[in-house]
Model the fold of this input.
Amino acid sequence: MKPLLGTAVRALAWAAGMVSSGLPPKQPVRCASGSNAKILGCTGTSVIAEIKIQSAGRGVYDLTPYVEKVVKSAGLESGAVLLYSVDPLVRLITIEYDPDLIEDLLALVSSWKVKDPYVIASVFQPSLVIPVEKGLLLGSFQQICLLDLNEREGVRKLIVEVVQ
Done:
């Protein structure tokens, strides 16, 4: 298991620009704001944006179109997109955004005999890294989704970093 972890760490370090890939330098990313994201920072190799989602409370919300717009606005052909949830009861998953599958996932989560929603949140990751190669590299039926474990509605914030 350690070699795999080492490979993942090296891949993330390379994507973040901390390690040379041995490949020719890539074109700098653009820093254009999209309609669904606020650009927080921009360098020649990365764009950091904030995506805000209006949530009705506990449920699953498709983020894929918002993330695609951030990647497109960065002009990135190859690299990675890192997503992080700022809210402790919001998690990020990949799943086919199909009503039956979403219903099954929410039924599974609801069936757990847990009183504290923070325990449920600990089972899911607050972050995702998705490779980019002429677009997001997701499976045929995969979408990037927000799993909201909050009981109340509100605005949920995500940080998205697009890196070469």
